[in-house]
Specification:
Layout lengths: L3 E4 L1 H8 L3 H9 L2 E5 H12 L4 H13 L2 E3 L3 H16 L6 H13 L2 E3 L13 E2 L3
Helix pairs in contact: 1-2, 3-4, 5-6
Length: 130
């Protein structure tokens, strides 16, 4: 298992829903990072829910347990390379997922996800709980 893990949004949602498999993976990780993009997606979901205040508090508590992975120059460079490679191969994936992957690549972390389209990204370490 890699030392650092960046959970995709679907992994954090599963964790918040009580999925013991995701919890076990994250507990065993040496370092859990939260990407700015994932945090934005979770915040949007919380704000768009019927229990916005409760869900925002849950996200803040989750955020406090992780190391924040900001978008820096290394992430920007990785994003450019990944997006160009996907375009040249005709294998587009959702834009936010390119940012998540770039953050993982720049930080040497694996992405914990259920989304198979991450497999299109060369050199990206992946993990799943399914």
């Amino acid at each position: 298992m890699p030392g650092s893990i960046i959970p995709d949004t679907n992994a954090f949602i599963a964790l918040l829903a009580g999925d013991a498999r995701v919890a076990a993976i994250l507990d065993a990780a040496g370092d859990v990072l939260v990407s700015a993009v994932v945090l934005g997606e979770l915040t949007y979901g919380a704000l768009n829910s019927r229990m916005a205040d409760t869900n925002l508090a849950r996200i803040r508590a989750l955020r406090d347990e992780c190391r924040f992975a900001a978008v820096d120059e290394a992430v920007v460079a990785a994003y450019g390379r990944v997006r160009l490679d996907l375009k040249q191969r005709g294998r587009p994936i959702p834009e936010n997922d390119i940012w998540i992957a770039a953050t993982a690549i720049a930080s040497g972390a694996a992405v914990l996800t259920r989304d198979e389209h991450f497999q299109e990204i060369d050199g990206l370490a992946l993990m799943s709980w399914t």
